[in-house]
Amino acid sequence: MKMFYFTDAMCSWCFGFSPVIKKLKENYPDIDLEIVSGGFSPGSKQVVDPEYRDFLEYHWRNVNERSGQYFDHAMKFVSDTFTYDTEPASRALIVVQKLAAKKDYEFLNLMQKSFYSEGKDITDENVLGELAKEIGIDKIVFLENFNSDESKLKTQQGFQFSKQLGVRGFPTLLTLENGNVKLISHGFQSYDTLKPAIEDWLETAKVSEVKAGQSCNDTSCGC
């Protein structure tokens, strides 16, 4: 059974939601969880001036209080050239999904921790290349793919897919069955709050599978 996880490495609530996703993957191994970089603010020219720093710190404190995730408020990634453009990190995840698909969640977590807890600039391709090395991907191979037209196109397609399914924010979990979108969760919530929605979806999916194989009339049933 397939579920889509729409996220963004530079979305602070997604960082807070990361331990919840970890539990979801551990406790429901049969769920095929596909990670999609939905595009929080691709192409943004937003600089981290004092006003925007206050904005970030406010939300980071809220995420920390709800999730327990650690944030380094020094924001060492801030520089004269840094802008809050989430496209590079989204594209990096696309590259990892191509080169080492089973490590995409690990890489997403690594980007989040590097950005929020260590202050690394994950809009920088060299920083992203070093992170790729940490999960066993050759940096040169990573950068070749990162700068390819194919990866840029697939990244934009991920953003469009998010819009097509009506995703309005991150994190979002949903399913797509026979063209019908079913929202599982939107925004941060605890695992204990999420679990009933997962159980309900799984039960409904099982019933649907059973009914799909049935063909009954007033006198008999067949498959």
Automatic annotation (TrEMBL):
InterPro entries: DSBA-like_thioredoxin_dom, Thioredoxin-like_sf. Gene3D superfamilies: Glutaredoxin, putative protein disulfide isomerase domain. Residues 6-198 form the DSBA-like thioredoxin domain. It comes from the Bacteria. GO terms for molecular function: oxidoreductase activity. Pfam families: DSBA. This is DsbA family protein. It comes from Flavobacterium potami.
